[in-house]
Amino acid sequence: MTAPAARADEGSGHLALNSVYAEGFGAAVAYSLNYERLVVDQIAVRVGISLFGVHAGRVESGFIAFPITVSYVGLRSHEHALEIGGGVTLANSGFDSVHVLSAYTTGDGLEPIGVAFMGYRLHPEVGPGLQARVGVMVLAGNGVAFAHSASDWGDAASAKVATTFGVVPWIYWSLGASF
User: Fold this and answer.
1) CA-to-CA separations, 174 to 2, 21, 26, 90, 133, in angstroms, rounded
2) Are strands 103-106 and 80-93 parallel, antiparallel or unpaired?
3) Domain that holds residue 49
4) What DSSP designation does 15 have?
5) How large is the greatest C-alpha to C-alpha distance in the chain, in angstroms?
6) Which region holds residue 21: left if phi is over 0, alpha if psi is between -120 and 50, else beta?
7) Which H or E run contains 155?
8) Do 86 and 115 touch, CB atoms closer than 8 A?
């Protein structure tokens, strides 16, 4: 007796190479839209963007963040994987200084925020399909702290926060498509 023939697309073990997804919280602090590419079967590189308005009293400005990360997804069973990774988020606001959820930024240029994460990933094999991620993350850098109102600190305290190295536990989840 012979075993039944497997479908041509079944069991190849190769993940879909490209993904686009929206991430909640995560590396861009609030949300981001992302493109990710598997550069080898177990390593994925992601770039994203987050834009939104920030209000401080009567002043309104924008916040922008660019998450850039690398993920290892080699610990997996078909489309289910343990995701481990890290990278940097470059963030900036139009204000002299502003706190966005847990990251302090200034209008002086892009502020780097270190990112390390671990979580579960659903990533289709071979063809297109749903990609989903959920996990825990750590944000680290100068001015990273749980949010407070900058007006509560005053100028001297805001300057101190901007130069103080901080580490904050964070979460992330995402939903999108791989192809």
Assistant:
1) 43, 6, 9, 20, 5
2) unpaired
3) 18-178
4) B
5) 81
6) beta
7) helix 150-163
8) yes
**Model confidence over 51-108: pLDDT tens digits?**
987 665 665 667 789 999 999 999 999 999 999 999 999 988 765 455 555 555 555 6
How many independent structural domains does the chain possess? Answer: 1
**CA dihedral sign, ordered 147, 151, 154, 159:** positive
Residue 7 covered by a domain: no
How much is the pTM? 0.79
Evaluate whether residue 49 is within a structural domain: yes
Per-position DSSP letters for 17-86, written without gaps between them: SEEEEEEEEGGGSSEEEEEEEEEETTEEEEEEEEEEEEEETTEEEEEEEEEEEEEEEEEEETTEEEEEEE
Single-letter amino acid code for the residue at 91: A
Q: What is the pLDDT of residues 12-34, one digit of tens each?
A: 568 899 999 999 999 998 899 99
CA distance 72 to 85: 6
In a domain, 111, yes or no: yes
Q: For the domain that residue 72 is a member of, what is the CATH number?
A: 2.40.160.20
User: How many Å apart are CA 21 and CA 167, to the nearest integer?
Assistant: 26
Which single residue is written with the structure tokens 């200034």?
A: 106
Kindly state whether residue 91 falls inside one of the protein's structural domains. yes
